[in-house]
Specification:
With 324 residues, the chain is an alpha/beta fold. Helices cover 33% and strands 27% of the residues. It has eleven helices and 13 strands. The chain has a seven-stranded mixed beta sheet, sandwiched between helices. It has a six-stranded antiparallel beta sheet with strand order 3-2-1-6-5-4, with helices on one face. It holds the Pfam family T2SSE.
Length: 324
């Protein structure tokens, strides 16, 4: 095993317990490289890399992902797996900056069978599953690294166990699951979110899982799928549950269509419990609450978690200004 292979294996192994989500290889002002490690809670202090090792690691990961190792300016994306980490899918993105120095981000996607959603309140997952048995649009909101994909897959898995056909559309597929029909976006082949949703409707699934609403076309196609009588689970980046409808309206979704299709909006974050273990906390809105919310639901859930000693006062103070 080469020095480069040993280095990458050691980095991943040392941070698995912290559920590392992203690895960043970034050039510094001196031309050397540093490694940043993102966990669900924070970015850890930078790790200095010997001058020659940074570019070698980037080349090695690009080779594993079947990318062009000679191209160092244009953006490239790819993915790979390693025998030593059978339950992880590695997804990388590279680009050269204006100094023609290449940077790389490696995201670690964990197998759904090894990472199950854990909650501050166990009944929140059961409530979400109960809500999503209703046809219509169900949206999970929150920032990157808040466990949205893990939660949605956990809900979809429960629905699949109820003899429902689940079809996922993702960019890319993040978690392999043999119980789902899984489609992957490929813009080069004209397999866009919109076109795949249209094709997916012909398969007559009971449940759609649409990876993320990112633009007007995806938003409108997602709402159309929900209006056709399907259960649609999807995610969106938003600062609070009460802001989800605003974002969709800004994307051009007609309010009448949104009111007719939207069944639930859930805001989620990963926060440490009293044992410093990361668990999900949600603010759930359904029915008329979606349109009447003033954003207080998040702080109410957080305050209740503090009152029954699920979280510490420090955690409450840190997270009480978000999600509302």
């Amino acid at each position: 095993m080469s020095i480069v292979q040993q280095f990458f294996k050691q980095v991943v192994t040392e941070h698995l317990a912290q559920q590392v989500s992203d690895l960043y290889l970034l050039p510094t002002a001196t031309g050397q490289y540093q490694l940043l490690v993102r966990t669900p809670v924070k970015i850890l202090p930078a790790i200095a890399i010997p001058p020659a090792l940074g570019p070698q690691v980037i080349t090695y990961l690009k080779y594993l992902a079947n990318l062009d190792i000679t191209e160092q300016r244009r953006p490239q994306t790819g993915q790979f797996t390693l025998p030593d980490f059978a339950t992880i899918n590695f997804r990388i993105s590279t680009v050269g900056d204006y100094h023609q120095r290449e940077t790389l981000v490696c995201r670690l996607i964990y197998d759904n069978h090894t990472v199950q959603p854990r909650f501050i309140f166990d009944d929140q997952l059961q409530q979400l599953i109960a809500i999503t048995t209703q046809p219509g649009l169900h949206i999970l909101a929150g920032p990157m690294g808040s466990g949205k994909t893990t939660t949605i897959y956990g809900v979809a898995q429960k629905l699949a166990q109820q003899n429902k056909i689940v079809l996922t559309i993702e960019d890319p597929v993040e978690i392999n699951n043999a119980n789902f029909i899984q489609l992957q976006v490929n813009n080069t082949a004209d397999m866009t979110y919109t076109n795949l949703i249209k094709s997916g409707l012909r398969h007559r699934p009971d449940v759609f899982v649409i990876g993320e609403i990112r633009d007007t076309q995806t938003a409108q196609a997602t709402v159309h799928a929900a209006l056709s009588g399907h259960t649609v689970l999807t995610t969106i980046h938003a600062l609070a549950a009460s802001e989800v409808t605003t974002r969709l309206l800004e994307m051009g979704v007609k309010q009448a269509y949104l009111q007719a299709s939207l069944r639930s909006v859930t805001y989620q974050r990963l926060i440490p419990n009293t044992k410093k273990q990361l668990h999900a906390l949600q603010a759930q809105l359904s029915g008329s609450k979606i349109w009447e919310s003033n954003g207080d639901e998040w702080n109410e859930a957080l305050a209740y978690a503090l009152a029954i000693n699920k979280i510490t006062t420090a955690t409450y103070e840190e997270f009480k200004t978000i999600g509302s």
